[in-house]
Amino acid sequence: MKTWDVIIIGGGIIGLSLAIALRKRGASVLLVERGEPGREASYAAGGMLVDCPLETPPSLQPLATASARMYPEFRHELEVESGMKVDLRDHGTILFLRKEHLAHPQFATLFHTVDFAEQEPALGMPGYKEEFEQRWSLKERDLETSHEEFAELFRFPFQNAFHVNERSIDPRAVTGAALKTARNRGVDISSGDPVTAINFSDGYVTGVTTTKTSFPAEKVVNCAGCWSAQISPSRLPTRPVKGQMLCLVMHPRNLLKYVIRTPDVYLIPRSDGRLLVGATVEEAGFDKRTDPPTIQRLHRAALKLVPKLADAKILEDWAGLRPGTPDNLPILGATEIPGYYVATGHFRDGILLAPITAQVMADVIEGRKLEYDLSPFSPSRF
Ligand SMILES: Cc1cc2nc3c(=O)[nH]c(=O)nc-3n(C[C@H](O)[C@H](O)[C@H](O)COP(=O)(O)OP(=O)(O)OC[C@H]3O[C@@H](n4cnc5c(N)ncnc54)[C@H](O)[C@@H]3O)c2cc1C
Predict the structure, then answer these.
(1) Structure confidence at residue 148 as a pLDDT band (50, 70, 90)
(2) Of all protein residues, whose CA lies closest to atom 50 belonging to ligand 1?
(3) pTM of the complete model
(4) Is the domain of 66 the same as that of 99?
């Protein structure tokens, strides 16, 4: 009977990225997916690679920044190995903030307000740090958009606009390329059959049982997203957090260049002319249905922000289930059960965090010295 070094439960972006990382280090890997790989949260995501201290919890910031930096290489590798195109965009995000957000304690240290009339950002804010000037400042020249064009495009006071040097990626493309790369690298994949239990002998992991069969391995990693708690022998408090989105087709297809985030809605342009409009954050159990009034509300918010979208057709709408945790931080690491590991709970940042999660989890599983402090994400913290 075939055995594997590691079995990964769940074929979302987290399970797939980890499978590739472990395979690259020489491990034999079986990935067990109950449906089709890459069709759950990782398919539903917007793909903003948010690396902004106003939005990222401080303890997650080192991993978020590291992962954001890994993305160009991660994407390049997936494109080369899969032969598939992965749309990674680098124009940055325009963040529109309301006045009350400007009072955020971190704000003054992170951002420069823009005064278009002066051509230069207004400097001299207290606590200004040089590193942040490059990464989180808005300058008219960075935007390649004049004051007039900007005012014509957006119905939002441009005084409250900030440019963030973040990338965005098409999650469906990255997940599809990761699946093909995993296959090409020799990861075995079992799909269409859920894991129902993790098996033990004398307290050690011996594999998994599915509804049809059993697979043996000494190490098992739970990457089952918001379903992780259902198959965990230890107490894992993951829960589904629903997000509804819609997709418009822009005319012209490059109408919007930047990702736009406002307190009400975000817009993510793709290079092929699609524009994603998102997203709700709902406690609705495992219900993945969209509801028309909610989709209409998101649509209206997009049109209000960018009136030129009035002619843009709706291509599709959908909902996905983010893997939430009580403290909104991922759960990463070894559990107290020998051979049982967890990489889940990535909530709103799982696409962003996939490359770094794969790296740190492969280090944990191999017993290597860790580059990052994973204690805030410990499975035993709950
Ligand atoms: C609307 C929306 C917008 C988002 N936007 C962004 C964004 O802009 N940027 C960002 O970084 N993140 C975003 N996210 C979050 C991101 O999608 C998730 O954090 C990420 O996809 C989690 O990946 P995962 O692999 O852990 O989970 P999933 O992709 O859900 O994969 C888990 C897999 O486990 C499988 N599984 C479950 N139970 C079993 C079982 N018993 N046996 C076998 N397999 C099982 C499932 O079928 C599934 O395929 C968004 C999410 C949503 C819903």
Answers:
(1) low
(2) 45
(3) 0.91
(4) no
